[in-house]
Every structure is written in structure tokens, then in C-alpha cells.
Write a structure and sequence with these properties.
single chain; alpha+beta; four-stranded antiparallel β-sheet; about 20% strand; elongated
């Protein structure tokens, strides 16, 4: 799933390649991707792209008062093409969901792998009309997001810190992969209650949150859209690396599986050397 660093990189890429150019065609291939109908998705045709913004994991292309807002969900992606194929795309069982063509002949495809179709496209006059954008919490890389801000957000949070970090209404942009990376950098168990963190633990968590995301953004900066997935995977230290040695201490990275996802962690770095129990128990094995 694209998270804050990848969407930030896509924003920068589109700013360099699409801003200042006119949208000549918007071609939805999978109708399910369209979440709004007024204005229609074709309303952006004939308008110049004047800016690109990121809201959490949402990508917003501004076009003369209209906003084409995209959420790539778990299996979606943006594929830039310096030259789009001639002729309209054919609906079918492939991954292509929507195509945006510019007057230069370039443009991009929104694609989605797998059978769970969650990729979403909205055309609105104000990004706050998108429910997911309106619900977003603060951006963790914003200048005014400081340690005290994080402490206030976690006050009274009777959830495991892993789940709190992934809650987009609490903190915008962090997903499954980077929450694992942040907690590893902070030396913190994903099962620890958010409200139980000491001031020292909040300090460590804040520093890990900012540094992990900032470093991931810097690694992705300037890369072509097609290289961002590989860059994300190569930069992860624990997420997706079950069975591999921890790059910090050498212990074996462990996994806890859920019905639709999994988390990875290092027992030595994060849980005092003890493996975490099955998710249904939500406690350390004894």
C-alpha cells in the first residue's frame, strides 16, 4: 500500500511532469473507481493542472477550481507514461482503472491489482468534500506537529500503539509498513497501549515517527513513479522481512498475522526478547 512517503514522491513527480499541462481526456475503465458523479470526471477535461497536493495518503490534482482526488488503497498505483497508447483503453479484467491524458501525449494510468477493488477517484470543488480527507488527523511531517502534539493525541487512547498509528483520523499517512518501521526505530512493542506511554517513550516515538518518514521521503525524492515501489521495499528494515536477521541486533524478525494483514517486529529490540502472542490473545507469551 502506498503510504505518506510514496504519495509525497508521486506528488513531487506530478508537480514536475503534469503541472502546467492541459487535461484532454479522462477515461474511466473501471466504473467502480468513481466515487463522485457531480461534477462528472470529464469536467476536468480542457483544464490546466495548476498544482498537486497530498492529504495523508490522498493525492489531489488541482485543475482550475476542480480537484481530481485519488486514494490508491492497498493495491493501487499510478503509472506515468511519456507517451500514452493510441486509442481508448478497452474495459476488461486487467488492472487499468482510469487514464488521464495530457495535451503533450503523455499522461498516467491508475491501476489496481487483485480482486478487492478499493482504488477511489473523486472529482470535487473542495478536497474537504471527500469524506476520507475531511476525517484526516494532522500530518506528522507538518511544521507544527511537535512532541507535545503527539502526546495530546495519545492521551486516553486505549488502543495498541500499532493500531493508533494506523488510524488516519488520528495521524494522517502512516500505514501498516511504516508503523512497523516506526515502532522498530522507537524500540517499542506494537501491542503496547498508546495511553500508557511514558514521556520518554513518547519522545522516542516522536523522533522515530519523524525520522522514519523523513528518511523515506528523502530516499524517494526525484525517483520516477515506476521505481517507488522497489525503493520502499528496499528501505524497510523489519516490515515484510519475517525470518531475516534484524539489521540492528541480528535477532530473527518475527510476525503476527491477522485476517487481512500482518505485522513484523524484532523481539530483542522491541519486546524484551519475548515473541508476541497470537493476535487473539494480544499479550506476550509467558
Amino acid at each position: 500500500m502506498p503510504e505518506l512517503p510514496e504519495v509525497e514522491a508521486l506528488k513531487d513527480f506530478l508537480t514536475d511532469h503534469a503541472v502546467g499541462h492541459e487535461v484532454v481526456r479522462v477515461l474511466p475503465v473501471a466504473i467502480s473507481v468513481l466515487k463522485t458523479y457531480d461534477p462528472p470526471v470529464t469536467a476536468v477535461e480542457g483544464h490546466e493542472i495548476t498544482g498537486v497536493r497530498r492529504y495523508g495518503k490522498f493525492l489531489d490534482l488541482q485543475a482550475d477550481g476542480l480537484h481530481l482526488v485519488t486514494h490508491l488503497a492497498r493495491a493501487g498505483w499510478l503509472q506515468w507514461r511519456d507517451r500514452l497508447p493510441d486509442g481508448p483503453p478497452r474495459p476488461g479484467k486487467g488492472p487499468l482503472a482510469l487514464r488521464v491524458a495530457l495535451e503533450t501525449g503523455a499522461g498516467f494510468d491508475l491501476t489496481e491489482a487483485g480482486t478487492q477493488k478499493r482504488l477511489a477517484v473523486y472529482v470535487v470543488r473542495d478536497p474537504q468534500e471527500v469524506p476520507g480527507v475531511a476525517r484526516l488527523g494532522p500530518d506528522p511531517l507538518a511544521d507544527d506537529f511537535d512532541e507535545q502534539h503527539l502526546a495530546r493525541l495519545l492521551t486516553g487512547e486505549r488502543r495498541q500503539i500499532k493500531g493508533a498509528l494506523r488510524d488516519q483520523s488520528l495521524i494522517a499517512g502512516v500505514g501498516n509498513a511504516y508503523s512497523d518501521e516506526i515502532l522498530h526505530a522507537a524500540g517499542m512493542s506494537p501491542f503496547e497501549l498508546a495511553s500508557s506511554l511514558s514521556p520518554e517513550e513518547i519522545r522516542r516515538l516522536y523522533e522515530a515517527l519523524r525520522s522514519t518518514l523523513t528518511e523515506a521521503v528523502e530516499r524517494s525524492r526525484g525517483l520516477a513513479a515506476g521505481r517507488l515501489k522497489a525503493e520502499k521495499k528496499s528501505g524497510l528494515r523489519v516490515h515484510g522481512r519475517t525470518g531475516e536477521p534484524c539489521p540492528v541486533c541480528g535477532d530473527t524478525i518475527r510476525e503476527v498475522s491477522f485476517s487481512d494483514s500482518s505485522l513484523q517486529y524484532c523481539p530483542t529490540c522491541q519486546t524484551g526478547g519475548k515473541p508476541l502472542a497470537d493476535r487473539r490473545m494480544s499479550r506476550l507469551l509467558k
